[in-house]
Design brief:
Order of helices and strands of chain B: HEHEEHH
Number of domains of chain B: 1
Largest interface: A-B, 33 and 28 residues
Structural class of chain A: mainly beta
Helix content of chain A: under 10%
Largest sheet of chain A: 22 strands, antiparallel, barrel
Distance between the termini of chain B: 56 Å
CATH class of chain B: Alpha Beta
Radius of gyration of chain B: 17 Å
Number of helices of chain A: 4
CATH architecture of chain B: 2-Layer Sandwich
Radius of gyration of chain A: 26 Å
Largest sheet of chain B: 3 strands, antiparallel
Strand content of chain B: 15-25%
Number of strands of chain B: 3
Shape of chain A: globular
Oligomer: heterodimer
Structural class of chain B: alpha+beta
Distance between the termini of chain A: 43 Å
CATH topology of the largest domain in chain A: Maltoporin, Chain A
Number of domains of chain A: 2
Chain lengths: 736, 114
């Protein structure tokens, strides 16, 4: 018994600490490059390795003792080596060994792209790396998606500044956001939490479309976004970023990572933002964006011992914002329309791990505890929420015979105590959800698959079974086909999930019962790499169909005077098609084009209709140029949003809105960065065409009238924004 | 919109080409750079030296491409800078004390099979 407790208490999360090195080994005689079958890949210190397959591919699980040296050798070629460290986990290597008939020198070419789709993963994962994050201001998480076509960031009302992400046309609550594989930004934080992670804390972002894997939870229905933060042993010794913009926002970010003795590393990440400039360019008497301040602080520790490793961290966040009518109108004795949102949280996480004696086997446990509160005021309507949450996830990782067959089994437990009050409505519940999961991965010559199942027992809703399957078929050396199918579910929090709908006088008609939202997702993608102008390019086409078995339907069409919340009775689905072309006409230039088609429909007011606020067609273009001496970077992004259906509402004069479709509009961003040794200077503009929605607030003169509505928003309220910033960083010393 | 992007790109390159006067030289220097870190070290040092337009290292053949203004800096001076960083530059040998300070993978033979 004691052994079990000890093992469970001191176990290891493979995903976080034990990394995997993957790659392809090519042989070159300078004229041709061909994959080498049977090349040996060996870790020098750990003394084990792998052999490349027919496609020249190999895969190795990294040992705990890092850094180590990877040696590549093949008959008739010069050998080569590369040092692998903990940070080489998400990078796929491309190794070129030169024929011994040729040059005396041999090199392993180490290529790290800024925006890559990891070809070697079975799941379709899009990675946004450090280079991509620098292309935009990226001061907070929502800005980090500005140069990405798969994840949209939307403003959901014209007064509170709430921002939500959207994938495949489905609301952000259907995308599981994780912070280093720990579920994050869920529950109460779903609407205002995007500001709690500063862009300067992020090392990389992984975006998975579809249901993701079973290991991390059941809530990924549309997709999974995993944020990897900077790690104490790799982050900068000092990093400073100061940012200001024309909207009146000023930000300061500070990171520092350093060693604390032989086995400990620590990192501090701090973020502060102040927005005290009131603006009302459209003269509707309402602040175009709320004033506010927010602060976030994180402290994390890494322990690397011989037998165990651990990560512990704590982060605290406080955000306070005030929107609504401008100060000039606040002297009105009959009252004024005030929007005030206060959110705070404290979050503690820990990951412990222990390598087992059998190589390639390990156990890991993740712990997380969180306390958060959200208090919101929209005019006379109040919302208050409090959530206490505990999460634990234990995973056993192993192989069967060889690394071609891998498995993960584990147990998880979630405890949530969530209380929400809105006007006279209450929604309190305590959730206790223990669960078990198992996942099997097979990596073959051409086919790889990941099959997983999860069974969770929810104290209120019973058993929920979630199977998920992912397949990858390597059609040719340059073509990958992927297929995914799975089920995901979550318990809706109709109040906080739709909090922006408080910015109207319409009453909320609460749902009769609360049952879990369940969806099935099926989809696939084709990724084709090609060579154009001597540079690598790629074309990706993906299609996903999500069908809801049950969903909390927010019906803004059924009743003109109220918003009806209820469980799905009818059909609800989403079809999403995305095509993305990436190419590099010259070495210094990267261009990306994307087109997205969204067909999202559900039964509203008894008929199957297009979901509101979702543009059916969307185009995206990104251009980036880096000078040869690496001193200047120019980035330009253009997004075109097609027409979207708008809810029909009543205007102040009693008539109804007609032509309930939004217009087609473009949003342009551009940024210039100058790099000088340890300094970066950047200057950029957002919404360069100054496109603004005219009169976003209906009946702004009478905010307490029955026709007041600040939720019918489909384009930016704020127009052209110019920003500038400075970054300064000193790296930690290289390890000898 | 695509036309303006093309125009912008053309203008950018025209500007670059126009900027080159006859006092610019492009040289190829064989270095002893071994790994990715060496590439970063060399490029980050040389790209900020006054007179050097750009410096690019090709790890495959260890050749450093440098474009520089002959009036501001000479090829010999560039070789000296490289040797002071800890790398060979054509026939100029690396300064020994600097070589010791380099990270492991950059040391001579750091990338070879031991």
């Amino acid at each position: 018994m004691k052994n079990i407790i000890v093992t469970v208490l001191s176990v290891f999360l493979v995903g976080a600490i034990q990394g995997q090195v993957k790659g392809i080994v090519y042989g070159s005689d300078k004229k041709n490059k061909e994959a080498i079958y049977g090349a040996k890949v060996k870790l020098l210190k750990a003394n084990y390795g792998a052999i490349t397959n027919e496609e020249g591919r190999f895969e190795l699980i990294l040992p705990k003792e890092l850094p180590d040296t990877l040696v590549f050798s093949a008959m008739g070629h010069y050998s080569d080596t590369i040092i692998v460290d903990k940070k080489d986990r998400f990078i796929s290597f491309e190794v070129v060994l030169y024929s011994d008939q040729l040059l005396p020198e041999v090199v392993a070419s180490h290529k790290k792209g800024t925006h890559t789709i990891s070809r070697l993963k079975t799941l379709h994962v899009e990675e946004i790396g450090a280079g991509e994050l620098r292309k935009a201001a990226c001061c907070n998480l929502s800005e980090s998606f500005e140069t990405n076509a798969s994840v949209d960031v939307n403003i959901t009302d014209a007064v509170s500044g709430a921002k939500k992400i959207q994938m495949m046309g489905l609301d952000g609550v259907y995308t599981q956001i994780q912070l280093e594989n720990i579920p994050y930004l869920r529950g109460l934080e779903s609407s205002f939490g995007l500001n709690s992670i500063s862009g300067t804390w992020i090392e990389s972002i992984q975006i998975t479309k579809g249901t993701g894997n079973v290991v991390n939870g059941y809530e990924s229905m549309a997709g999974l976004v995993n944020l990897e933060l900077k790690k104490p042993d790799e982050m900068e010794k000092i990093y400073l970023n100061a940012y200001v913009n024309a909207m009146g926002r000023a930000e300061l970010n500070f990171n520092s990572g350093f060693k604390l003795g032989e086995k400990w590393h620590t990192g501090w990440l701090a973020h502060g933002s102040l927005d005290q400039l009131e603006m009302d360019y459209n003269n509707d008497g309402f602040r175009d964006k709320p004033l506010g301040k927010n602060f976030a602080l994180m402290n994390r520790y890494d322990y690397h011992g011989e037998k165990m490793e651990a990560k512990i961290g704590i982060n605290a966040y406080w955000d306070s914002r005030e929107g609504g009518q401008v100060s000039a109108l606040r002297d009105d004795p009959s009252g004024f329309y005030d929007v005030s949102i206060d959110s705070k949280h404290i979050d503690v996480f820990a990951k412990t791990g222990f390598f087992l004696k059998r190589p390639q086997h390990s156990i890991g446990v993740v712990y997380n505890a969180k306390y958060q509160t959200v208090d919101a005021l929209f005019g006379l309507r109040k919302f208050s929420g409090e959530e206490k949450r505990g999460y634990i996830n234990a995973i056993y990782d192993g192989i069967i015979n060889n690394t071609d067959h891998k498995f993960k089994i584990g147990l998880s437990g979630v405890y949530t105590d969530i209380q929400q009050h809105m006007d006279s409505l209450t929604s309190d519940r305590i959730e206790i959800v223990p669960g078990a999961f198992a996942e099997y991965s097979y990596t073959g010559m051409r086919i790889s698959s990941v099959v997983g199942v999860r069974e969770d027992y929810h104290n209120l809703f019973g058993f929920q079974f979630s199977p998920r399957v992912h397949l990858k078929y390597i059609l040719t050396e340059r073509t990958d086909l992927r297929f995914t199918a799975g089920k995901g579910w979550r318990v809706p929090n109709y109040m906080i999930d739709n909090i922006s709908l408080l910015a109207t006088s319409k009453a909320w008609i609460a749902p009769d019962t609360l049952i879990p939202e369940i969806s099935w997702n099926v989809g696939g993608s084709i990724m084709q790499e090609f060579k154009l102008f001597k540079q690598k390019g790629s074309l990706t086409v993906d299609f996903y169909h999500t069908r809801f078995e049950n969903q909390m339907i927010v019906d803004r069409d059924a009743n003109l005077n109220g918003i009806v919340f209820g469980n799905l009775s009818g059909t609800s689905y989403s079809n999403s098609l995305q095509m993305e072309l990436a190419l590099s006409p010259v070495k210094m230039i990267d261009i990306r084009f994307a087109y997205k088609y969204l067909d999202v429909r559900a039964t509203y007011a008894g008929t199957l209709q297009q979901q509101v606020m979702i543009p059916v067609h969307r185009g995206f273009f990104n251009f980036s140029y880096k000078t040869r001496n690496k001193r200047w970077e120019y980035d330009f992004t253009c997004s075109v949003f097609g027409q979207a259906r708008l809810p029909q509402v009543q205007l102040p004069d009693g008539s109804l809105t007609n032509g309930n479709t939004s217009d087609v509009y473009p949003i342009l961003h551009a940024q210039i960065t100058h790099i000088y040794k340890r300094w970066d200077f950047y200057l950029g503009g957002e919404n360069l065409t100054n496109y603004r929605q005219k009169n976003p607030i209906i009946d702004a003169e009478n905010p307490f009238s029955p026709t007041f509505n600040a939720t019918r928003i489909w384009a930016p309220v704020f127009g052209l924004n110019v920003y500038a910033g400075i970054r300064f960083s000193i790296d930690q010393k290289e390890k000898e | 919109m695509k036309k303006s992007v093309l125009l912008f790109t053309i203008l950018l390159f025209t500007g670059c080409i126009y900027g080159q006067s006859s006092t610019l030289n492009v040289a190829e220097i064989l270095t002893s750079a071994e790994c990715g870190t060496c590439k970063d070290l060399l490029e980050n040092k040389l790209n900020y030296i006054s007179g050097i337009k750009y410096a690019e290292l090709n790890l495959a053949d260890k050749i450093l491409n440098v474009k520089y203004k002959t009036k501001k800096i000479s090829l010999g001076e560039i070789r000296t800078i490289i040797s002071e960083l800890g790398y060979d530059a054509d026939t100029v040998k690396a300064v020994e004390s600097a070589v010791q300070k380099l990270p492991l993978c950059c040391q001579p033979g750091g990338m070879k099979n031991k």
